Amino acid sequence: MGKYDIKIADNSVRVDVLDSAELISSRVVNDLIPKLPKESPVVGLDLHSRKKGRGVRSANSVLVLCIDAYCLVIQLKYVDKISENLKKFLDDKNTCSVSVGVHRKLSRGAPPPLNPLLCKTAVELSHLAWRIRQDSSYCNSDLKALATKDKVSYEPPVSK
């Protein structure tokens, strides 16, 4: 669907937005996997869906996978099936997928073929912060609260 180069605090990030299983499969093999570090690979993972109103979520969800300065944004509404390469990538027990609130978001409804994969592999960033900092106030914090606790300036993006 599109390639974008964006700047985030003086850092360039390449973003591919995809809506087809074949393209997703190709990008996973050619772009995501080669960017994984050999030791302790970590993938940023997020799931977004817009509200239609009164708490009802639209079917227009996106899955975001990020490694270093590369992000793959998958428009799930247009994807008829989850490719085997994406399933293998998400199911790889050697890769740590880190997210904030992904389990809560999944409970609101991820596409069924994706849900069990994300539940198995995603680690809550707030839980990791709580374990590392030995401070229970980190547990169940959203990204802005985590950033604030560590004195990092953060403003979430505004959806249009």
Automatic annotation (TrEMBL):
It comes from the Eukaryota. One of its GO terms (molecular function) is nucleic acid binding. InterPro entries: RNaseH-like_sf, RNaseH_sf. This is Uncharacterized protein.
